[in-house]
Design a protein that fits this description.
heterodimer; A: mainly beta; Immunoglobulin-like; five-stranded antiparallel sheet; 59% strand; globular; B: mainly beta; six-stranded mixed sheet; four-stranded antiparallel sheet; 46% strand
C-alpha cells in the first residue's frame, strides 16, 4: 500500500532559524512528488513538483530535494509569514490521484 | 486570474439531509478532482473528471456520494442521507490536464458540519 509519512507533525522555529521538513514515501513507480502549503481555512497552494531522485527546486526561502525514499523541504532563515501547514503528496504510474501525507504544522515566531 | 471557486464556504445540516457542494474550476482546466480533508487526516481522493471521459469514482466512500460535471466545467458533489462521519472539508482542485507538469490547484473548500 502506498504511504506518505511526514515528520515532524509540528515544528516551532524562531525567525531566522533554518530547518528541514521530511516526507518519506513508499510508492512503486513514483511519477511525481508534490509540495503544497496550506494556511488555516484555505485550500492547499502548490509549491513544487519533483520528478526524479537528485532533483532540487527553489522558491524564495524554500528548497525541495528528492531521493529515492524521501523528500526534504528546507526552509532558510524563515519569517513569521512562512507559518503554515506544509503538505507532501505523491502520484504514480499513469495515476493522476494524489496521495497526501498528514502534513507538518510550521510555526515561526518573531 | 480567478482560481478554483467553491460554494458554499460553510454548510451546516442535520443528519439525514442531502447536501450539494459546487465547484467552479479554473477556466480552461480540463481535469477536475474532489478530495476530502477530515480532522487529523490527510487529504483523501474522492473522484476525478477529465474532459469527456468517464469519471474515476474509485475514491467515493459509499453510494451516498455522487458527483457530476456539466459541460466540462462546473461540478457538483452530492451527499445523500448525510451522516456525522461525513463532517469534513471538501476540497475541489483543477488542472490543465493530468500531465506531470500540470499540478492540481485547489479551491478553499466547503466546510461541512453534520449535526
Amino acid at each position: 500500500e502506498d504511504q506518505v509519512t511526514q515528520s515532524p507533525e509540528a515544528l516551532r522555529l524562531q525567525e531566522g532559524e533554518s530547518s528541514s521538513l521530511n516526507c518519506s514515501y513508499t510508492v512503486s513507480g513514483l511519477r511525481g512528488l508534490f509540495w503544497y502549503r496550506q494556511d488555516p481555512g484555505k485550500g492547499p497552494e502548490f509549491l513544487f513538483t519533483l520528478y526524479s531522485a537528485g532533483e532540487e527546486k527553489e522558491k524564495e526561502r524554500l528548497k525541495a530535494t528528492l531521493t529515492k525514499k524521501e523528500s526534504f523541504l528546507h526552509i532558510t532563515a524563515p519569517k513569521p509569514e512562512d507559518s503554515a501547514t506544509y503538505l507532501c503528496a505523491v502520484n504514480k504510474g499513469s495515476n493522476y490521484k494524489l496521495t497526501f501525507g498528514k502534513g507538518t504544522l510550521l510555526t515561526v515566531n518573531p | 486570474g480567478a482560481g478554483v471557486s467553491q460554494s458554499p464556504s460553510n454548510k451546516v445540516t442535520e443528519k439525514g439531509k442531502d447536501v450539494e457542494l459546487r465547484c467552479d474550476p479554473i477556466s480552461g482546466h480540463t481535469a477536475l478532482y474532489w478530495y476530502r480533508q477530515s480532522l487529523g487526516q490527510g487529504l483523501e481522493f474522492l473522484i476525478y473528471f477529465q474532459g469527456n471521459s468517464a469519471p474515476d469514482k474509485s475514491g467515493l466512500p459509499s453510494d451516498r456520494f455522487s458527483a457530476e460535471r456539466t459541460g466540462g466545467s462546473v461540478s457538483t458533489l452530492t451527499i445523500q442521507r448525510t451522516q456525522q462521519e461525513d463532517s469534513a472539508v471538501y476540497l475541489c482542485a483543477s488542472s490543465l490536464g493530468d500531465g506531470l507538469n500540470q499540478p492540481q490547484h485547489f479551491g478553499d473548500g466547503t466546510r461541512l458540519s453534520i449535526l
